[in-house]
Records
---
Amino acid sequence: MNSKTKFSIGNLDIGGDAPVIVQSMTNTNTLDVEASVAQCKRMIDNGAQMVRLTVPSLKEVESMRQIKNRLRTEGILTPIVADVHFNPKVAESMASIVEKVRVNPGNYVDKRNFSQIDLTDAEYAAAIERMAKRAEPLFAISKQHDTAIRLGINHGSLCDRIVSRYGNTPNAMVQSALEWIDICNYYDFHKVVISMKSSNVQTMMEATILLKEEMEKRNCSYPLHIGVTEAGGGLEGRVKSAAGTGALLLMGVGDTIRVSLTESPENESPFAHKLIQAIQNPSQGHFLKEDTLYFTSNEPDFELWMSQASALAGYYYYRHHIRDIKLQNPHFDESQIKNLESTILQACRIRMSKTEFVSCPSCGRTQYDIQSVLASVKERFSNYPGLKIGVMGCIVNGPGEMADADFGIVGASHGLVCVYKGKQRLSVAVPIEKAMDQLDELVREYKQ
């Protein structure tokens, strides 16, 4: 490995001096080949340069093969990514079909029960060795088919072994990634992309930068996929994404990006491209005075201006711990400016003026209308500064990613959801209406 790692994923170059790649993820049922192909095509038409689909079990493997073949038959060469959870056998099957497989290290650990595990150094090393052995077939098949692997390190799904030793921290995320870098090196496999995901902007940024520094110490530089996971929707989701992803791009960090919005997947890539555009042409009209960032702009495009302001705020909060932001733009009225200022401060967790919502973008595993439920939750519970509510699509990442939320809803099956208080599940699968009533009771208790 050298310090400017670059390789191809399908028809795209990634890493080194290659342009930043925009990717997105479908929310169709992968077993529905027609719907998945149609959505892939719409996403690609809207700017997605790489498309990811969920493969929750072995039964979706053949559907993925058909989806890819259909796209290739129509002359669409966009790389296809398989998103794999729980079952390593699914990852091994997909490695011979698609251009990239995304795996979570948690797929390969002994257990993950949100419990404390105290291991000796010898026991710890033995657990890593078992994990590496389980991953060996994936690397062998990926080598054979020239398939890339994305190591998806999620703040909310770190294994008990890691969290017990390093805490639920950015450093713990980095240690998880470094274990897998060592495993990749052991198997002489280097077609690797790494992501450090969190719904907390600062956690995501810190983990990504720490990993970059650790890789530089090792004289290697695997491409980094960056993004704020479970960013939400609307203005809040875009600001949170820009404050984290945009700030890292300003630092020259990031090879591929995804803007995770609780909206139609077709909406993600246009904003991602606009964010890249904003970073490539940053305004010079900003300065720091004491602990406040001042940003004056004449940009008439709201999303470009908002992206620049949010990225600058994320950057300066990370580097200088600013405590406020003041915006000026003659194209927008005072209420729009004040709303953007408060939304940016909330995204960076500088000043919490309203409820914080953590919501996933949904995918083929989500079996309820998460977009309408998020809208209802926001309407009913927006005015509780300091309160954090999660609205998650499924059990895969839901409980982990919203583990520091006060309360939340996690999708179960067929339109049913479970209600959580922190990591504790309070209900069996219930209809949305009943879950909202339970949230009402929990929030009233919180308010008291």
Note: Residues 79 and 319 are 35 Å apart (CA to CA).
---
Amino acid sequence: MKLKTLAIAIAIGAMPFAAQADISVKGDVTVGYFQNKAGDNEFYGNGTNFTLYGEEKVGSLTYFGNVDFDVDDKYDGGGEITSDDMYVGVKGAFGELRMGDTDNGCDATDTGWVVPDIWFAHSSGGCKGDDKNNITYKRSMGAATVAVSHSPNGEEYNAVGIQGTVGPVTASLGYEAGDALNGNDKNVVLGLSGKVGPASVGVRANRVDGGDTDVGINGVYSAGANTFYVGLGDVSDKDSQFLGYQRKLGSKTTFIVEYQDEDDQANAQYGIGLSHAF
């Protein structure tokens, strides 16, 4: 039934009226061979997703809606579809307001992550608040962007962030506070990113009130059809390493290899596979 629903959704997005209604459908199909943390080898679809987005302009305002579906087709062959990034909003000269499953004020301006990871990622300092059930306002003013958010559900929390660019360097500062952060904790996040030619580097650091400072460094280098990326992290006194390689085989197809290891894992994780975008 779930796979039938997926087929119907794609068919609707491809019908002629979709362009008139400003509805877009995009995504990818990704399949690979993996070793998990337990050392088991698996072959299945991992990382596959598709997104539905639509908007309409009413006067000076644009109203929009978005939903992202992640498709997990693990070795049991059952297939499972879960929703993500399900939000509605409005944007105009005043900025942009989103409601639903969307980034909080800290995540909406964070700039410390630059690599195109598909399956794995190293632990790194960053925002800790949930990206669900948020009301987030964001506005750009010249070289600076600010965002604030409130989560009214259950364990309420608030977040705020600011991002600015000076020359080749972009910096962000975020702050989160509330019950959703393990009991009225406060979290301060700093992000830095920059690009020099074909290389980009990002740094993220955060400190939860009363805890240690966590730091993550990541970088990516592109040369022709080849993209190499790496990450190193130190979070909660655990070191992590992350490596990845992608090669474009065409305009829509990509070969992917990724590797990730952390101090508390019994085995390193790796994946090798193909992704086709549509």
Note: The chain is about 5% helix and 60% strand.
